[in-house]
Amino acid sequence: MSRRTSRHAGGAARQALASALLCAAVACLLWLGAAARADAAPRAAGLAPPGSPAAAAKQTKLDTILAQVAALAKSRGVQAARQYATPRGVDLRPGGVRVIILATDARVATLQSVRRAVRVAGGIVAGSFDRYVSARVPVTALPRLSRCAAVGSVREPGGCAADATSSEGVAEMNVSPWTAAGFTGAGVKVGIIDGGFKGYQALLGTELPASVSTWGKSALGPEGGPADDVSHGTAVAEIAHDMAPGAQLYLASVGDPVELAEAERWMVQSGVSVINHSMGWWGWGQTDGTGVINQVVDHAVANDVFWANSAGNSRLMHWRGDFTDPDRDFWLDFDNVAGDRYNTFYASAGKYIQACLWWDDSFSAATEDFDLWLAKLNPGTGQWEQVASSERRQGGEAGQTPVEIITYTAPTAGYYAWQVARAWSARTDVDFDLLTPGVTLDDPSNPHAHWFSYERSCAQPADNASAGFMAVAAVERAPGYVQATYSSQGPTRDGRITPEISAPTSVTSVTIPSFTGTSSSSPHIAGLAAILRQAYPTYSAARIETLIKDQAADLGTPGPDTLFGWGRAVLPAVPRDTTRPVTTAWAAKVKRGAGAALRYRVVDAGFSAGPAKVTLLVKNARGKLVKKLGPFAGRASGVTYRATFRCTLAKGKYRYYVQATDAAGNKAVKIGSAALTVK
After folding, report:
1. pLDDT at residue 16 above 50?
2. Confidence at residue 517, expressed as pLDDT on a 0 to 100 scale
3. CA angle 49, 53, 56 (to 5 degrees)
4. What pLDDT, on a 0 to 100 scale, did the predictor assign at position 609?
5. Rounded mean pLDDT of 261-280?
6. Which residue, 181, 282, 553, 622, is most buried by CB atoms nearer than 10 A?
7. pLDDT tier for residue 219 given thresholds of 50, 70 and 90
8. Which class for 535: exposed (0-12), middle (13-18), buried (19 or more C-beta within 10 A)?
9. DSSP H or E stretch at residue 589
């Protein structure tokens, strides 16, 4: 595990020591007064006193922030609640607050009870998948909803983000010779599942195909449509189209796991065989191949869909480790040294701050209870002051997950810090992951203590284990092809290699002129897969993955590794198709001087099948050529055509022959012929 510890100034060190001693004393008093719960974590004075919304969250099924917003709406009104909610990432609108409800189980009766509770609360159900229900509920009705016996927990739908002209990757991956040979992804349907596709209509017929198919939920508000305020998906689609200009595109915008599942089902039903998803999700599973996000991917791959996914941009924004508390003050000490409980970072004013903490525990009924806190350094006093917390309850009840999430907008610039508290846990060897999207922990300019880990920094579903799925890392442009410093790396929690493959970043698109991140790398692989699915139509998604791995140019340590996977994706030389077409003809009887039609068909089993060029030769009984029809270009394999002409031949018996040459230059191995009788 990599980490950096910057030396504190002497005064700051004394302040930190004093703060640690004070917290230890407070913890001791709490311990003496709490016989039923001796491991209760200390609570910062002034942030969450007994009876406050944050303290109440431990006793309800609501997320901490949802409990706070609901309590504020009740005491001071919805407008005050909205002002508090917006900078903390809560989607509170006139129609209510958008939430994901985790039912206690996935039985039909249980889900029906949850849906009924939402309607009784005056809310709208948008959809459901497994035991997850997506809804918008009046903020003042959240406590009532949480009291439904079928509701395990209620959380905000956050925990996903985009892993933020012709793409230069086309040349660097040797795609041009393939497209010149006719391999453009023609006949292949490619799906792009993303957060939004603002401006895609203006690019139809230029940077995108002339037409695309779209899907987007609208039940919860305008955030669900394909043409909303997010343009990230449009840039992703541009790259996929650059790579495979002949493929059909299907665009779907999503914002929660239920929408992800519904979009994937729509694509499978539409015949999509390649999906790109340049987004990462956190707090929905253990990053070991399990969880609701991976269930969606598994379903697609089980239906022979190849899935390319960005590995993530969180390599510098992640920490992993066990819970260590040498001073026994119930706070995690990041470096196993008393007082090292602040993992610091700098944020400018208005910075959108996010973090997700999860640990090895059951994702259906977590029993180890930990909390996540955010503090800010007061430059005047040198003290850390806590400004936000996530205190979900983990008590072994159905629907409780080992996850804490904080979203916060920095009101002023300065240094902030993450803290982890042990609220209740029988174990001390708990293995944590702390992911902070957009917040860099590996910052050499930070003078305060900070810890980070490059390993295991991929979000979901980059941890997926299905054959036919590939997580994509980012490498910089030629000639070096060095790893992009932000590109997340493996392994997964269960020790498997991820990402599986690497592709270019820092490429050009109209929507995002300099498109960086694994978001731009992933659609290169999706486009490449579309080309291969056209070239090898009988290959499964799993075999396409194997082919991409086998042709990759190794990078870094010899062999597969957790930085580059199997290496940089590149297509080999265009293969030579030697399969020769077969033609068929049908007997015909015509009248001299009348119109006539000769039926024929070309079947080509080669990977470069069609369009073929066909010529019909009519010969008399002595074998002499008496008429030539064609050549006819663009004849597709397996389609019956008619060659029409006015018959001027003398009455008698003839025979016509169907000659064909396919797109690869192969001539028909078996020339079909049939009798032609002129009366």
Report:
1. no
2. 82
3. 85
4. 55
5. 97
6. 282
7. very low
8. buried
9. strand 588-590
Q: Strands 213-216 and 248-253, how do they pair?
A: parallel
Q: What CATH architecture does domain 161-314+457-551 belong to?
A: 3-Layer(aba) Sandwich (3.40)
User: For residue 487, what are its two tokens?
Assistant: 């590109």
Separation of alpha carbons 483 and 501, rounded Å: 12
Q: What is the pLDDT of residue 670?
A: 84
CB burial of 34-50 (b: ≥16 within 10 Å; e: otherwise) equals eeeeeebbbbbeebbee
What does the pLDDT average to over 144-164?
86
Rg for the chain (alpha carbons), in Å? 31
| Topology given in CATH for the domain delimited by 39-157 | Alpha-Beta Plaits (3.30.70)
DSSP conformation letters of 171-227: HHTT-HHHHHTT-S-TT-EEEEEES--TTGGGGBTTTB-S--EEEE--TT-GGGSTT
- Tell me if the pTM is above 0.85: no
Q: Is 548 helix (H, G, I), strand (E, B) or coil?
A: helix
Q: How far is CA 519 from CA 40, 47, 421, 516, in A?
A: 42, 38, 34, 7
Question: What CATH class has 1-38+331-451?
Answer: mainly beta
Whether the pLDDT of residue 667 is over 90: the answer is yes
The H or E element spanning position 74 is: helix 64-76
Q: What distances in angstroms separate CA 616 from CA 355, 417, 604, 613, 656, one per listed residue?
A: 70, 79, 17, 11, 7
Contact of 89 with 137, CB cutoff 8 Å = no
CA distance 475 to 482: 5
pLDDT on residue 54: 43
Q: Which of 280, 214, 197 lies closest to 248, judged by CA?
A: 214
C-alpha dihedral, 451 to 456 to 457 to 462, nearest 10°: -170
On whether the CB atoms of residues 593 and 612 are closer than 8 A, the answer is no
* Distance in angstroms between the alpha carbons of the first and the last residue of the chain: 89
Is there a contact between 457 and 163 (Cβ–Cβ < 8 Å)?
A: no
Which part of the chain is CATH 2.60.40.2550? Answer: 582-678
The structure tokens listed for 36 are 């039923």
Q: How far apart are CA 156 and CA 66, in angstroms?
A: 7
What's the confidence (pLDDT) of residue 180? 83
Q: Where are the alpha helices (DSSP H) in 563-629?
A: none
Instruction: Let me know: does 96 contact 146? Beta carbons within 8 Å.
Output: no
Compute the distance between CA of residue 590 and CA of residue 596 in angstroms, rounded to an integer: 6
Task: Select from 150, 451, 137, 466 the least CA-distant residue to 301.
Answer: 466
Residue 523 burial (10 A CB sphere; 0-12, 13-18, 19+): buried
> For 616-663, what is each residue's pLDDT tens digit?
999 999 999 999 999 999 888 899 999 999 999 999 999 999 999 988
Quote the CA–CA distance of 463 and 496 in Å, as a whole number: 8
Between 175 and 264, name the one with better pLDDT: 264
Q: Coil, strand, or helix at residue 76?
A: helix
Taking the C-alpha atoms of residue 2 and residue 390, their distance in angstroms, rounded to an integer, is: 26
Amino acid identity of residue 311, one-letter, is A
State residue 288 phi and psi, 5-degree precision. Answer: -125, 20
